[in-house]
Amino acid sequence: MSARNARLVVVGENVMDLLPTPHGPDVLRAVPGGGPANTAVAAARLGTPTRLLARIGADGFGERIRERLLREGLDPSGLIAAEEPSALAVATLGPDGAARYDFRMDDAADWRWRAGELPDRLEPEVRAVHAASVALFREPGAARIEALLRREHGRDRVTITMDPNIRADVIGDPAEARALALRHAAQAHVVKASDEDLAFLHPGLSPVRAAHAIAALGPSLVVATLGSEGAVAVTHSGEVRVPAPRVRVADTVGAGDTFMGALLHGLDRSGRLGEGPRARLAGLDGGDVRELLTLAAAAAACVVTREGADPPRADELAAAVEEVSAAGSLG
After folding, report:
1. Given strand 15-20, what is the order of strands in its sheet?
2. What is the pTM of this model?
3. Residue 263: is it exposed, middle or buried by C-beta count within 10 angstroms (0-12/13-18/19+)?
4. First to last CA, the chain
5. CB 217, CB 182: distance < 8 Å
6. Are 9 and 49 in contact (CB under 8 A)?
């Protein structure tokens, strides 16, 4: 992949996930992850040329993180060699495979963006900028990321997409984090949020009502992921729902990130990302949105059958979508 042909730019963190093993609680497996990095890998594996803007820790974990990103074909020009250590997350899995995380990230490289490290312009080939997760909230870097997104929103040359991926334990004061997330949502064209994210952003509202509240801020497409209940999209013309494919779950690590990567890939290949983003997204009809959700849900279903964040490649996803379509025609 050329360093100058990225169509998707993702900004955010890498995290070294310490995952459980069959050998007991004292033996963990270190696997590179982090929501934005997982999304970038998912999109790249499906064929969307992708650049990750990230600061890479100056330790052995950072070396493994960089190796992963390069191995996956991501444009390396956005990777900053930082002086600080890598962020860590100790994962525990529930009986249903759902992952919960204990983070170690106070001194991590990922949120310490300095002047001149983020690009002051994007190449004409770039069609979308995606921002997500903890890096949106932790200073001093959060303000620099917000400035980048505000600048690109004002230029109206790329689609702005956002996944809050709320980690309440590490993003500071809840009221301030909520206000910041909603500010980001208001200048995004596409927002993906889990049911847990939506409960944080709009306490007391159902996920669907919360998605409508976010859509009222301005995004053209808001997608709520509902775990085993599937996903629902809210556009200015209504709602579209798809069920979650039935699969045997190994764990849920990277499921939402993979959903987002596949959604971005689907939007890119259908020409819905790029200059004049609102006009491009306004052309989506119910069938288009259903196709996008089916693609993204199938990608997420693939990744939960595997241990850790291991998104599908294009041929695997094509087979999964065909299986989902066949099941739907029979049911």
Report:
1. 28-33, 15-20, 87-93, 99-104
2. 0.94
3. buried
4. 41
5. yes
6. no
Structure tokens at 188: 């995004």
SS (H, E, C) the chain: CCCCCCCEEEECCCEEEEEECCCCCCCEEEEEECHHHHHHHHHHHCCCCEEEEEEECCCHHHHHHHHHHHHCCCEHHHEEECCCCCEEEEEEECCCCCEEEEEECCCCHHHCCCCCCCCCCCCCCCCEEEEEHHHHCCCCHHHHHHHHHHHHHHHCCCEEEEECCCCHHHCCCHHHHHHHHHHHHHHCCEEEEEHHHHHHHCCCCCHHHHHHHHHCCCCCEEEEECHHHCEEEEECCEEEEECCCCCCCCCCCCHHHHHHHHHHHHHHHCCCCCCCHHHHHHCCCHHHHHHHHHHHHHHHHHHHCCCCCCCCCHHHHHHHHHHHHHHHHHC
The answer to whether the beta carbons of residues 123 and 275 sit under 8 Å apart is: no
Q: What is the CA radius of gyration of the chain?
A: 18
C-alpha dihedral over 133, 135, 137, 142, to 10 degrees? -140
Least Cα distance to 187 among 155, 160, 158, 207 occurs for 160
| For residue 140, cis peptide bond before it (omega within 30 degrees of 0) | yes
Residue 158 gets the label, from left (phi > 0), alpha (psi -120 to 50) or beta, of: beta
Average pLDDT rounded to a whole number, residues 89-111: 84
Residue 223 structure tokens: 């997608």
**Which residue from 91, 89, 15 is spatially nearest to 54, judged by alpha carbons?**
15
Poorest-confidence range of 11-20, 32-41, 264-273, 318-327?
Answer: 318-327
What are the tokens at 328? 């739907």
- Per residue in 140-193, pLDDT (tens digit) is 999 999 999 999 999 999 999 999 999 999 999 999 999 999 999 999 999 999
